[in-house]
Amino acid sequence: MALASLRSDAAVGKTMTLSGPKAWTVPEVIALCEKLANARAEVTRVPIWLLRATRSTLRGFQWARDAADRLAFADILAANEDFSAPMDETYALLGVDPASVTTVEAYLGEYYSSILKKLKEVGATSRQTDFYV
Fold it and tell me: Burial, 96: exposed, middle or buried (Cβ in 10 Å; 0-12, 13-18, 19+)?
């Protein structure tokens, strides 16, 4: 979409919606990944206040500002907003066929299919039963 907007004269000076028909929550993405990988994910939950505090602390160090910027998603999580929106106007403005846009389900499905195939090719085995003392 970003590249299509750069090629479109009609997009100059316009504000466009870049969203999708479904706003995925973190638990939904994790559940989808677990389903596609046929495995359970080990999930560690971190309170949003801790992410914000870490971000504020890291901002104080020039060498850590990139890490602090990556923690900006904590503000989005805290807002608890729905980020789904119709894209019809954006598709039309950019001349993009909606059918050509990859969905999260399709993208992750292709990703896991590719990764699991490669793991089988190299004979990788699960380490879920490895224990370290």
Answer: middle
What sign does the CA torsion over 102, 107, 113, 118 have?
A: positive
DSSP state of 24: -
Whether residue 33 is found in the same domain as residue 54? no
Element (H, E) at 89: helix 88-94
Using CA atoms, how far apart are residues 18 and 85, in angstroms rounded to an integer?
A: 8
pLDDT tens across 66-96, in order?
988 888 877 777 777 778 888 999 999 999 9
Rounded Cα gap, residues 47 and 28, in angstroms? 18
Q: Is 51 part of a structural domain of the chain?
A: yes
pLDDT tens digits, 20-55: 778 888 889 999 999 998 889 998 988 989 988 999
Tally of structural domains, the chain: 2
